[in-house]
């Protein structure tokens, strides 16, 4: 494992897993059951123009609270994803100033496999709020080409304070519906500085993204054909 780049927004590691562990993770992805993200309802982190991504089940580094265990499987799972969970837990210990410290800042991390076929991406967004201390993405596909798209774009500004506007509802309460149909806030935040980092989805690469940083996934291009961006994505977060 080697650090390819490190700045205030993102840290990128290449050859994150051994060749054997990488193979076990890819075989796990091949065996996993995927469904379209918006299969049952609109998951509003994905805007309507973001294409048709797929996701699988949630895996956690520790058991979730008892009322949420049905939503996830906890380590150890006896599956290839354990190789990634073990490596990420060990790596996090070396970057407490970026990831946060286990205990005070985060209690567990969760991992979810995703597939992005041609045309699928993810618009500018931040990951979580105070319950998330750091986000990450690991590229599990065995091959990628520079013409296939799916680059991770990371805003290079110091902006870390995206807030969702609260609207008054008919019942008198104020709630924050989200930014899925109003992109002006994220557009202003990104365009204010307009410079950042791009990360190619190289196989066996891990990117840690600091909390509150705006980022996006460029759509997978037509040149990718039937190749998909396969990733393990998740957050270090509290147990609440």
Rg (C-alpha, Å): 18 Å
CATH superfamily: q2cbj1_9rhob like domain
Helix/strand order: EEHEEEEHHEEEEEEHEEEE
Provide the number of structural domains.
Answer: 1
Strand content bin: 25-35%
Query: The CATH topology, please?
Result: Jelly Rolls
Name the poorly predicted regions: none
In short:
This protein is of the alpha+beta class. The protein contains four helices and 16 strands.
What's the topology here?
Elements: E1 2-6, E2 10-14, H1 19-31, E3 35-36, E4 54-55, E5 58-60, E6 72-74, H2 81-92, H3 96-99, E7 108-116, E8 122-125, E9 132-139, E10 152-155, E11 167-168, E12 174-175, H4 184-193, E13 196-199, E14 206-210, E15 215-217, E16 229-237
Parallel strand pairs: 5-6
Antiparallel strand pairs: 1-2, 2-14, 3-4, 4-7, 5-7, 7-16, 8-15, 9-14, 9-16, 10-13, 10-15, 11-12
Helix pairs in contact: 1-2
